[in-house]
Write the structure tokens for this entry.
Amino acid sequence: MDQPAATRSDRALRVLLLEDSALDVELVTETLASAGLAVDIDNVVSSGDFARAVREMCWDIILADYFLPAFDGLSALDLAREFCPDTPFIFVSGTLGEEVAIEAMKRGATDYVLKQRLERLPATVLRALSEARARAERQRAQDALRELLEERTALLHELDHRVKNNLQLLLSLIGMDMRQARNKEVRDALGYMKQRLQALAAAHRDLYDGQGSARFDAATFARSLCEELTANLEPVRITPEFDLEAIDVEAAKAAPMALLFNEIVVNTLAHAYEHRHGKLKLEMNTRGGRLHFQLSDDRFSPEEKRAARDSSTGTILKALARQLEADVEWPEDDPATLVRITMPMQGGSERP
């Protein structure tokens, strides 16, 4: 069988050998040297010397007999795993039963070689060193990825913080302009702009909740939006009702979907309920890979339907619908339904 190739190095391998037999120390040294391995072997016998060696020095590999007069291999293995867990540990013993070998492997031993088969030792050492290097490389790669993730997370949190601050600044400025504006049309236009920014801020808040979620909870957002907008209405009273499935959509859709929901609900409240109380029934579900969003009441008059459909927000609705590949329908043959929207999920999913 071909031996694993050893990585060339300018220095000899540092080997800690726990062995009480001088003859066996010579045999191990000769076996490794005859295989072309440059080794620097430090032989220890007592538990104190072994413990000091694993605590205070670095080793490429540890070789240990299993039976010693005042020490045992498993105790040595426990010390090695505690102080140098990444260093390969190989038992080199005259007798090592199957049960003992299995227990040793469970407790972290890399391999074992019987003294009667020392010719296996060089290949076992090379394989253990190769596996240790591979583990170290994987660990370095994982550490690098973890560090990169931490940097990206910190950047995301900083970006989130700045976006929130900027949105809040814009909302404050619009609020100041609304208070200073004397023209009602200007105040109304600013009010619509403020509501859109508030919808964007709410979507951003739901997405970046400190963990950088990749999903947007569309149903919860729509419920919160309706509850907030209907709570601030005067002088009419609108009672929201909900029939919602728990639906998550991809984060890329959060902003346009939040704006679409906002335009639909604001438009409905402004034009379909201008002179009356009522119920605002919001339905959301998925069928056949498409999201369905619907606003209804017990009944809308033809005038209310026409006012909502032909309102000034129609151009914005069309632009948002194109971006979301959504179909917006104002059914004339169904007095209870004001508007119905369907759009492809494209990676969206129902949550259990």
